[in-house]
Each structure stands twice: as C-alpha cells, then as structure tokens.
Design brief:
Blueprint (H helix, E strand, L loop, with lengths): L4 E9 L8 H12 L4 E7 L4 H4 L6 E4 L6 H10 L3 E7 L3 E3 L3 H11 L3 E5 L2 E5 L4 E5 L10 E4 L1 E2 L3 E5 H7 L12 H11 L4 E5 L4 E3 L11 E4 L2 E4 H16 L8
Parallel strand pairs: 1-2, 1-4, 2-3, 6-12
Antiparallel strand pairs: 4-11, 5-13, 7-8, 7-10, 9-12, 14-15
Length: about 250
C-alpha cells in the first residue's frame, strides 16, 4: 500500500456522548498534526454517523453492529492511508503538536515499536498492572520504556502494525487488546514500548472507568463488563503461557 499521509487517527465509536467525543477529536486534529498531513478514520460500531456526530471530513467504516474496539481499530486501519497509525478512543481532545510528537518519537527511536503519552509497568505473566511510568523531569519528546502503553492514545509505524498482525479480535468487545498488542511488539518483534513526555492531550476515561456490572451489547449479545474482562484475561494467559519467561 502506498501511504500518502503522515498520520491516520483511527477511532471506534459505539455510542453518542457529551464532549470530549469523536467531534472533539476531529476539531483538534489539525492542532495535533501541527502541519503534518493526516486523516481521521472512524469505525462505526452499531451507530450512525449522525447519531455519533462524525464530521463529513472523516473517512467512515460501518461495521453494522457493535463488534468492539479491536475489530473497530482493525477496520479503521485497513481503510487508512497514513504511514503512522494512531489508535485513539473517542473521549479525548488533542493538544498542539501531540500527534507530531508521537510520530517524532517513532522516527527518532528505530527500536520503538509503539509509543503513547502514558505507559505502565505490568507483571505480564499474571497479567497485572503494577504502576504508571513516571515522566516527571523528562524534557518534551523524551521517552521512558514501559511494558504497555495507555490504551486511550498510542502510535506505531504501519509496518510494525502489519508485522504484529493487527489487534487480536478475540478480545472484543473491549479490555486487554492494547496490552496484547504491546506484548506482541516487545516479545515477538523485539521492539520497545515507550511513554513520551510532553504530549498534550485531554482525556476523560469512558468505558475503562465504567461500573464492572454495566452491560455491554455486542455481536448480538449482552455481557457484563466484568465477565468480558475475566474472559479476556484468561485468553491472554492461554495465548502467552510459557512465552514470557521471567520478564515482568
């Protein structure tokens, strides 16, 4: 595929909600690009463009029903044209130069497989989140290694995404998909996950901060968030059993 743009921002949407939302992402896109060439690609998970508030300038992929985050991101990536793929939630606003800074981190660090404004340390064998990576004292654009990036906004080169095989859709509709991708990038491709300092973004946690007893309708069924997470953790353990060694 011949990439004609610097950056593609891929966003799945399954419900309408107040700002920040997909319209906010669109409105702040040019600020985030800071002169680079980019596009917004929206995957509709069982919602219309009108109901979601998707602007006419966006490229749209309609999945028909709510298939989930990983299928939405994969579909958006397949329809995109950027050399750098940025995967984002629909509950944020991009600060000036935020996308350009993520791109610069990838270009300046050839060992970088995936970068984000936020990162965390995990015991991946459990798997269990341990702590956020502290970026205090770093200059804008400096990086710090982590085990997994923040799932609300992260970037990688298209060839890395392709080599990783995209997102594992077994994690649909949500939970663990970005942790699995980071594990693939570090343990199978031999690249690094970095948190990048000085990336300005306003983010309000949506589904990741929801009540675990909330029900999500997806793929013609209704399921508790808690049961989704438990099922996906089990899938992660089976998938990576014996492959992670002593690294945590």
């Amino acid at each position: 595929m011949n990439s004609t743009l610097d950056i593609s921002v891929c966003v799945p949407v399954y419900r309408a909600h107040a700002e920040p939302n997909v319209a906010t992402v669109a409105e702040s896109l040019q600020d985030g690009l800071d002169g680079l060439r980019g596009e917004l690609v929206v995957a509709l998970n069982g919602i219309s463009t009108q109901h979601a508030g998707v602007p006419e300038s966006a490229t749209v992929v309609d999945l028909g029903v709510n298939r989930g985050v990983a299928p939405g991101w994969n579909a958006a990536a397949a329809a995109s044209r950027g050399a750098i793929l940025v995967f984002a939630n629909d509950d944020l606003s991009l600060g000036r130069g935020s996308l350009a800074r993520l791109r610069a981190a990838l270009l300046e660090h050839p060992e970088a497989g995936i970068v984000s404004p936020a990162g965390a340390r995990w015991d991946l064998r459990v798997p269990k989140h341990l702590e956020l990576v502290d970026l205090a004292g770093l200059g804008a654009g400096d990086v710090r290694e982590c085990d997994a990036v923040g799932g609300f906004l992260f970037a990688l080169r298209r060839e890395v995404f392709d080599a990783a095989g995209g997102f594992d859709e077994a994690y649909a509709p949500c939970s663990m998909e970005e942790i699995d991708l980071c594990t693939t990038i570090t343990h199978r491709l031999g690249l690094k996950c970095y948190a990048v300092a000085g990336v300005e973004v306003e983010h309000e946690y949506g589904i990741s901060a929801a009540n675990p007893w909330k029900r999500i309708r997806h793929n013609g069924r209704s399921e508790l968030l808690r049961s989704i997470h438990v099922r996906n953790v089990r899938h992660y353990r089976r998938k990576w059993q014996g492959a992670l060694g002593g690294r945590s």
